[in-house]
Design a protein that fits this description.
It contains four helices and five strands, in the order αααβββαββ. The chain has 143 residues and is α+β, with helices and mostly antiparallel strands. It has two domains: 2-39; 47-142, no CATH class. The strands form two sheets. It has a three-stranded antiparallel sheet with strand order 1-4-5, covered by helices on one side. A two-stranded antiparallel sheet has the order 2-3.
């Protein structure tokens, strides 16, 4: 009887269970997938897609503002000279379907603004050029 008890006890202590092996393989597979995504630039492409979408949204707001107010959403209300660009006035507002909207906070509150610790003012990175094209003065990697 003692011999059979020793055999049963020995079988329980040896090796890993199938569940433990499956969990370990799942963790390894997840880590490999993350490394592959990082190496393939997946997250960089996601940032660029997000930036393009945000540019379209801001461009639509600029177009609406220019139609509504007959001026550009810049500090002086004019488009910049050819070859130049100007920051979008974050305080510019316009009316859509009876609702007054402004670039900040309605459109740009969740979008990035460059902040320099040595400068007391935030630099608006959202810009408009002489043709009314919207751009962002920020490296997509920082977006």
């Amino acid at each position: 009887m003692k011999r059979s008890q020793m055999i049963v006890k020995k079988d329980r202590e040896c090796g890993f269970s199938l569940l433990e092996l499956a969990i370990a393989m799942l963790i390894i597979a997840i880590l490999v997938a993350v490394v592959i995504l990082l190496a393939s630039g997946f997250f960089s492409q996601a940032r660029e897609t997000s930036l393009k979408t945000d540019l379209r949204v801001v461009k639509s707001a600029v177009d609406t503002y220019m139609i509504d107010s007959l001026s550009a959403p810049t500090a002086d209300g004019k488009l910049p000279l050819p070859g130049k660009d100007a920051p979008i006035d974050f305080n510019a507002s316009f009316t859509v379907e009876g609702q007054t909207l402004s670039f900040y906070p309605d459109f740009l509150s969740k979008l990035p603004r460059h902040h320099d610790e040595h400068d007391e003012h935030d630099e608006e990175v959202w810009r408009i050029d002489s043709k009314g094209r919207v751009s962002v003065a920020m490296d997509p990697e920082e977006y």
